[in-house]
Amino acid sequence: MKKNNILISPSILAADFSKLGQEIIDVDKAGADWIHLDIMDGHFVPNLTIGPDVVSSLRQYTKKLFDVHLMTMPANNWLEPFAKAGADIITIHIEAETDIKESLKIIKDLGLKTGISIKPSTPETVLEKYLDLCDLVLVMTVNPGFGGQKFMNTQLEKIRNIKNMQNKTGLSFDIEVDGGINKDTSKACIEAGANVLVAGNAIFSEDANNYTNLINLLRGPN
User: Is it the case that residue 213 has pLDDT exceeding 70?
Assistant: First the structure.
């Protein structure tokens, strides 16, 4: 059993892009549970990252779950390409699609787990009518588009409220947090109700020999 049942999903956005395959091997060996892939289109967010071909090329380096976070608008155009590239979960932004239920249905029909994400400025109440269709809810604790931003403490209440929604409905989706996660902010997120943590700089900014220790620090005490 994982310590505290907390899952760690290292974001390769912060990895060394000259050796992405090796970076994935290293975090896999270090105990990462998932691999987080940030897909940015230069439209929904002001940055451009990787596409399906890169994801497909990385699939060979690990059997760990590929946690694909689409920061694209529209999202639907990319669902099948990333499914074919090896995604296990595809998370879309509620702000990027007009027919969220249709998008989630497409993801499910592709045989994948469904995720939905909200920006810091989006209230969690918009999620309520989609929760029964989701395997994962992703709370952004920074504004999407760039790595290395400072954690927004104002989002902790949002995490707590989503956890309360889960308790009231009895649904079993994962609550994931992305943005400014380190050994201190991870503790606050776990206490608020999150069970999946995305971390970039908190892992990849140090030597690969230390990845195991860094991942364990994010999970918190036994």
Answer: yes
